[in-house]
Give the backbone structure.
Amino acid sequence: MSLATARPHGYLLDMDGVLYRGRRAVPGAAAFVRRLHAAATPYLCITNHSCFAPEYLAAKLRRFGIPVPAERILTAGQATAAWLRAQDARRVFAIGEPAFHTALADAGIESNAARPSHVVVSLDRRVDYERLAAAARHILRGVPLVATNPDPSYPTERGPAPECGFFLAGLERMTGVRPLVIGKPGPELFRMAAEKLGLPRRRLAMVGDRLDTDILGAKRAGLRAVLVLSGHSTRAMLKGARLQPDRVVRSVADLRDNSPGK
């Protein structure tokens, strides 16, 4: 049975643009998750956002009526902290919001070191010029650059807002150094999610709203790729695109049979 026709054993679900958008739930998302629970279908929500802890995101989803417990959420911030710990990193220079610094601290990593082993960049909506300049100076001295994710923007009710890739673009332009990306479309977040579910990647389907992270990362990692049109991507973006998902649906509400292979 080919990857294109195999029924998956489990799902990896992006969150923003898939289960909710801004301050509103995607219609049908709550019912979809309840169907997964009723069928005992393994799933994990994975997100490139690093601004919020899983407990916060689970509470947000509950307010939308979407029953996802915190243990079923894996953020790029958590994955980045785990990757750094596996590299035996203990002192880094991190740009990010409090939840990301907490994830690093929980992994035993100092996040504001004067002599860091890595510069780590994630979304920080309050970062100032001096901190960006300090990060650039470390990179120019040869300190490796690591990023939680490369997303240039994320969807909100008021339209796109800058994400981690917004800051990375400036740092890359100044230093000439490309980052190692832990989140989507990099392989580490997919690998960690598959390990957490205890399933091989070929038996997982990634459901996401971005061609450049969710779908590209899934294809590279050997997962089925399902694009929803409830977030960033549109049908117009698919026309002529070299990268094509295995299935396109309006939203997770259309995955009524729990099988993206059909």
